[in-house]
User: Fold this.
Amino acid sequence: MKIPNGHEVIQLFEQFAPKELAMEGDKIGLLVGSLNQPVKNVLVALDVVENVVDEAIDKDAQLIISHHPLIYHPLKTIRTEESYGRIISKLLKHDIAVYAAHTNLDVTFGGVNDLLAEKLGLQETEVLVPTYEMPLKKLVVYAPQESADNIREALGNAGAGFIGNYSHCTFSSQGTGRFLPGENTNPYIGSIGELEAVAEERVETIFPQNLERKVLKAMLQVHPYEEPAYDIYPLDMKGQVYGLGRIGYLSKEVTLEEFAAFVKEALDVTGVRVVGNLSDTIKRVAILGGDGGKYYKTAIRKGADVFITGDMYYHTAIDAKLDGLHIIDPGHNVEKVMKRGVAKKMTELCREKKFQVNFIPSLVHTDPFLFL
Ligand SMILES: [Zn+2]
Assistant:
């Protein structure tokens, strides 16, 4: 086991929630501090408020991974008698870095929206609002024939060669590789200054762009050559569709009233606002964590009986009601589900990497609203 530095932790995190999934202009990534230091404890929080910083100090965290960016609008001043100045000063004094994963964490599989859909037990879940299609790339690598199997296996294990539900898809052809080892080389086959001809295989496969680093590393680790020859091509085809919100089915039809009570309990809130006739029946459910009112028409188009989202505006609720869509607003704070969800996911990823680091879900309740 090794204690990783911040870069190593975030590299793993970004395999889970790649930055390219974020909406344009979102303030994600490292916001405060540095990732150069060793990280033993990571606090996972929804909001970085002062209590959360105190908790991070208390728990000896070197890094906070938060969902909502601490600095969303550019700061004009950092004055320590004001709230944000005080928070930033405390973080810097205690060498605590803050990294935000906002819409990329909403969108990614296993992120905020999947965690919410899971809490509601939704089945046959799909993306509600598509926002991104992962670009695909092609890798072609040339290797001596006896190494080709190892390379195909390493590529497949790293996640290359997925087509539908088929994994480890590759195509190989045989040919002759020629090279002339120059001064200061240490060739696996052949000798310095002599043109060599070797029976080689050309192995080709595709991979999603976000796995490029992982796939290349896996290939280079098993390739026997000092200077492996390979090409990477961008492709016009697109891969996996990502997006905001999820839509799926309940295991059985329930009334809106029953469902609202269930949502309240499942998402652990003390109140929900409900739009619609309480005796109407609900089977198909759309959910979008955070502020999702503007997507209500998408929920209707995709056949939702009810749309669950936070921060619902009065006029949007009027319009949705006129269009016959039921709404449950459990508040924005239900995104707190990410605290345990991210901690669990990162614990698994770090265990595989043999990184010794604790992920601690923040216990601070950051919802500014009380229901009376
Ligand atoms: Zn949010």
In short: The chain is about 30% helix and 30% strand. Residues 68, 290, 332, 335 surround zinc ion (CB under 6 Å). The chain has a mean pLDDT of 96. The radius of gyration is 25 Å.
